């Protein structure tokens, strides 16, 4: 009988413990690295802006065409193709071009006024981001992260199942007399909601379309994308698309553009409208048909949009400004600590079995 009154059979506990130990020991180093890199990246935007991205002198707010930004990067870095454009609104900020060559992704800073290439993002930050989000492989790396998220989800759920009986130690006030396994179980229970959120939100990042579709069906919001317009033009070039957005969506800034070569023949466009908080919405433009649709928006009142929004906020700790981010830096280290303590207990148990087998054979 557990502290919650739920009776757990010995066989079910043994099975859960065996699988928890197996997956936990196999994934321990992965979880530790994700924990450390995640904690390091909580303030990556602020660190990048303060130390690694100087402002540029552009008093007239001149904006070079997107095509010129792209060609400057591809000429400076042969073999790379521009995939994303981060079009920051402040004319003093460098534009960030995410370029790929096979599975390698780099972030290049470009002067938005004269299209002069400033250079790559700080290599430490760039490597941390590419590792944490894509396992250093911009091709299938994001999908591999999805597999890792499923493993973490199982470890988290089985950990809750196994950890509930240890609550009685806490209730009896004997926590300071406890062994490492009790501390491991109670720490796991403490951060279990976050571990489950991190794993589920990581799944939504790895398989966004499938996740959104499943969530929309589950919440009864499985409606077809809203068709906004049919964009006509002989060539839907990045410059043409940017100009179209500027003319037809007043008050909204084109913040991100994903080029169709990296998005199944469709532009992915993220528009931002000022306010507190700023409202973002995602559009998709099919190059073949010219059909422009709205996929999602941050101020949507639908249940699936609410869930997706909070999954993202809780993943990065951005729901309460600097305070929540500071807390998240420390909480992000807990899974790594659990991975190390779990690996130690597994090693100690294996060593004990090996010694026992050796003694019995003698």
Label this structure with key terms.
about 350 residues; 9 strands; alpha+beta; elongated; single chain; 3 domains; disordered N terminus; 12 helices
Query: How big is the Rg?
Result: 24 Å
Biggest beta sheet attributes? 9 strands, antiparallel
Strand percent estimate: 15-25%
Label the structural class.
alpha+beta
Main sheet: which strands, in order across? 4-3-2-1-6-7-8-9-5
Write down the domain tally.
3
Work out the number of β strands.
9
| End-to-end CA span | 40 Å
Low-confidence stretches: 1-5
Our count of helices gives: 12
Indicate the percent of residues in helices.
40-55%
Mean pLDDT figure: 88
- Tell me, briefly, the overall form: elongated
Order of helices and strands: HHHEEEEHHHHHEHEEEEHHH
Give your account of this protein's structure:
Helix content is 54%, strand content 16%.
Any chance you could write out the topology, listing elements then pairs?
Elements: H1 10-41, H2 44-52, H3 66-76, E1 81-86, E2 95-101, E3 104-110, E4 117-120, H4 123-134, H5 141-163, H6 167-171, H7 180-206, H8 208-218, E5 226-230, H9 238-248, E6 252-258, E7 266-273, E8 279-286, E9 291-297, H10 303-316, H11 321-331, H12 334-361
Antiparallel strand pairs: 1-2, 1-6, 2-3, 3-4, 5-9, 6-7, 7-8, 8-9
Helix pairs in contact: 1-4, 1-5, 1-12, 5-7, 7-8, 7-10, 7-12
At a glance:
With about 350 residues, the chain is an alpha+beta fold.
